[in-house]
Amino acid sequence: MKNKIVVSIVGLLIIATCFFSVTANRNLQLKKELYNNKYPSSMDLLNDNKLNLGKSIILKEKSSCEHFAYYSSDDDLCWIYKLFLTPPYNSTCVCGGESGSGPFFPSGTWTTDDRLLVTEYQNGALWEIDLENCDLIEIGGGGVGLNGLTYDPTSGKVYGCSSSDLFEIDPYTGAQEVIGFFNIGTTMTEIACDADGVMYGWDVKFSGNSILYTINKETGEATPIGSMGMTLLYAQDGDFCRECDILYLAAFVYSPIYGSYLIECDEDIGECEILCSLNNYAGLFVIPYQCNLRPIAEFNWTPEIPEPGKEILFNASESYDPDGYIKLYEWDWDNDGVFDEKNYTCPLATHTFDEKGYYPVTLRVHDNNFTNNSVTMIVRVGNEPPSTPEIDGKKIFKVGESGDYTYNISSIDPDNDNIYYFIELGGWFGPYNSGEKVSRNIYINAEEKGNHSVFRIKARDVCGAESDWATLEITVPKSFNWFMNFLYRFPLLHRLLEGLIK
Length: 502
Prior knowledge:
By secondary structure, the chain is mostly beta strands.
């Protein structure tokens, strides 16, 4: 009956935990509005098309890359904005005020070691922007003016493009090494690498549609993919949300709608779509390397040290996703890389190990944007008690001897757990390392001849397993003759005799 009640309670706890996990808030609400679009020509054309420009417009609502980008501005209030890549595409100022007399940066890229690199338009020199304090740090190099800059996450290399050529850029010196000619007959204005290191580029047109290309990183040769469906002007940049495999552009568009916009492009066919207008966009546009932050995998279990054959409750409810929600929990019970149990809604699972031992258990969690993370923890099954304590010290006394005597106590725990000791009438003390000798002063009063039990002691590990009792026994010989006095002058012989008596 008692077991049935326990099982029922555990079942109710599992159901309740699953319910609250499923009904947790899954969406981050964005409430700030974009600034008004500044360009009169854009306003006129949009009004002709009966679109409202009272606020920054959203032409297409999509929820794809649940993260953000940074872009530069030429207005007087802010020169770096943070743009959320989900509707309503809110922008917030990161670096306020104008950037001063610094150079114009037409392009930038984000590296896997969290560096924001930008290229100077006039001479291609490399700079770094520290977004913590909005400092501009000149790296140097250059020589040829660059339109675009990108980082290849598969090789760690940085590439730049002029109007006609592909370059490799040293990310620490800015030195340029020409790779080859695009051979496209028009001006290449930007390049970007996806998560697999595939390089894309697109060109500038003043009439007709711009073209999206793939670029050979070894030769620089560009191969057309298809029309982008719009005419792009010079001052624009683009980057991949790599974990989501989405190519975004921040571009000045000449046609069909003039102005600066956030654009999503299909890298397979070249077709692009406008998502929203941007605040006085001036050139730089980068997406931090992790488009979608990885979820955090955490779990615990009860009981902490289960016995063999007993059911263990594993709880992953402390796992979380910093910018979304967890949609799948997976468990690997035997460390073979194959996940034996999956649950799309509930962070709880049960498992049983039949033998004593140490078992690695892996939890892998997936977020709502196809990113996963895992953690492995060692589950200990079964607990061995520590050994019966050993007591080392004086055990032979003359009649009438008394006083405090030092005794060394030690016990070994098979699981290498720390150990407490308990002396009768003295209580518990510790903990100490397994095998560590612990000194205690014990008062001895050898009033009568014979063998006497002075005290008992036992050991207990930190997990609660206790040893058998050990007893300190002393001997008060009937005649303490000259031989015993002689032994006292030679401690080693004295200890040997005590050992034999013990």
